[in-house]
Design brief:
Length: 446
């Protein structure tokens, strides 16, 4: 741990390893007793994890039986291996039964000619390209841009469209190209689940709202920068610099839009990043510790704002069935996203700066060679050109979970840090619900 510890009195009795985040998110670390949606999905996800952990545990990059793990995931999700049968395999310790279903699934894909799906099951060739990942343009990563938000489902739902219309917005090209192993939810399930359907429609509305404001902000800044020095429009009535004010709005709406994009409807911990922090500091001393210039700062623990948002802001990942299954995969991998309690921790300002410098030196941020957001954009661009398929988004998230998360967590562990889930914030904000939480996850609806 870094010297002199502001957090040590709190950390020593409370600190838990990063892998326990999954258990906290699965059970729900906060909220107001929100209804757990899609219980069948949770049951299937739990079964897949237990089957693979029992019969094909992870043993490192070269020894893990990825082919069998992916085949079993596909078999459970497409119904070839029922939940009841899977639970029986675990209860009886039936290795042969596990192998039977894994082999049958691989043979099924070979028989059906599903080359892309088969490639993921028969194993990865070391050093082989996974797609367009050698083609990343590093110069495009830094400018603030306004994504075009798909609001088709929202329009149909608000317009009172029937099941046939809703299904037309779900049964898209991206969905049709999605492999069985990543089909955790099907259109027929979503259309008959009001909570999921309303959540998917609501997230389109919230994103559209924030990014619409961002578009206005960017145009306003361009107009102001074109004015001559001393022009009255450059100052607010208070005398403050208007360009700086617009700049703050740009940062807020860009961040808010990305946080809304990757807010997971399948997890129940609160979205708290945009809460008024002054009352919070008065209520919880830990949020107001440190001296000026080295106070505690909020750190995105697993996915940064840019990285999390990038998963869901490509044209194909905005398709509702792709978005909802990406969320299901993130839940399966125990990866919290957005500005939620599970994805936030406290670090000293100086340590926070050092940590992000370490990430930049490794190449994980600001257009570095391992910048996750750049990879998402590269796959999205290649998909539109016909050079990539939608499954590569899912595979990249799996790689991120297996390779990047352990690295970033080991670097963060070099500094004093306190996960929000251990800070008391959940109890303090039990009656708080952000706009995204209300419109996307239905929390505290009035």
């Amino acid at each position: 741990m870094a010297g002199g510890s502001l957090l040590k009195p709190l950390l020593n009795p409370l600190k838990k390893p990063a892998q326990e985040v999954g258990e906290r998110i699965f059970k729900g670390v906060a909220g107001d007793g929100a209804t757990q949606i899609a219980p069948d999905l949770l049951r299937r996800t739990k079964l897949i994890n237990e089957l693979n952990d029992n019969f094909a545990p992870k043993l490192g990059p070269q020894k893990t039986r990825k082919a069998q793990r992916r085949a079993i995931s596909a078999a459970v999700n497409n119904g070839d291996l029922t939940v009841e049968m899977g639970e029986r395999l675990i209860k009886e310790g039936d290795d042969d039964g596990y192998e039977f279903f894994a082999d049958a699934q691989i043979e099924k894909q070979m028989r059906n000619g599903r080359d892309a799906q088969l490639e993921g099951m028969v194993g990865d060739t070391p050093g082989s390209s996974e797609g367009p990942f050698q083609q990343i343009n590093k110069q495009e990563a830094k400018a603030t841009t306004v994504p075009e938000i798909n609001t088709e489902l929202s329009g149909v739902v608000k317009g009172g469209g029937g099941e046939e219309q809703i299904m037309s917005t779900l049964n898209t090209e991206g969905w049709q190209g999605l492999n069985d192993e990543y089909r955790f939810l099907y259109p027929e399930e979503v259309v008959h689940n009001p909570e999921i359907l309303e959540g998917l429609a609501g997230r389109q509305d919230v994103q559209s709202q924030y990014f619409g404001e961002l578009d206005k902000n960017l145009k306003d800044r361009t107009r102001l920068k074109g004015l001559p020095e001393g022009h009255p429009d450059l100052k607010m009535p208070s005398g403050r610099d208007k360009i700086k004010g617009v700049g703050k709005n740009i940062k807020y709406n860009d961040r808010a839009g990305k946080d809304a994009a990757d807010l997971n409807i399948f997890t129940v911990d609160q979205d708290v990043f945009k809460v008024n922090r002054e009352p919070l500091k008065k209520a919880l001393e830990i949020f107001d510790l440190g001296v000026k210039g080295d106070r505690l700062e909020w750190h995105h623990t697993f996915f940064g704002n840019k990285e999390g948002g990038s998963i869901f802001l490509e044209k194909v990942t905005q398709e509702p069935m792709i978005a909802v299954n990406l969320m299901a995969l993130l839940q399966k991998l125990d990866l919290p996203t957005s500005g939620t309690i599970g994805n936030l921790s406290l670090l000293r300002e100086a340590d926070h700066t050092k940590l992000h410098q370490i990430f930049r030196n490794i190449g994980l941020e600001q257009g570095g060679h391992l910048d996750f957001a750049d990879y998402m954009k590269a796959i999205g661009d290649a998909y539109l050109k016909g050079d990539a398929d939608v499954n590569q988004f899912f595979k990249m998230i799996e790689v991120y979970a297996e390779e990047v998360i352990p690295l970033t967590q080991s670097k963060a562990a070099q500094f004093d840090n306190l996960p929000f889930a251990q800070s008391g914030i959940a109890d303090e904000l039990k009656n708080y619900a952000s706009i995204p939480d209300k419109k996307i996850r239905g929390k505290n609806k009035k």
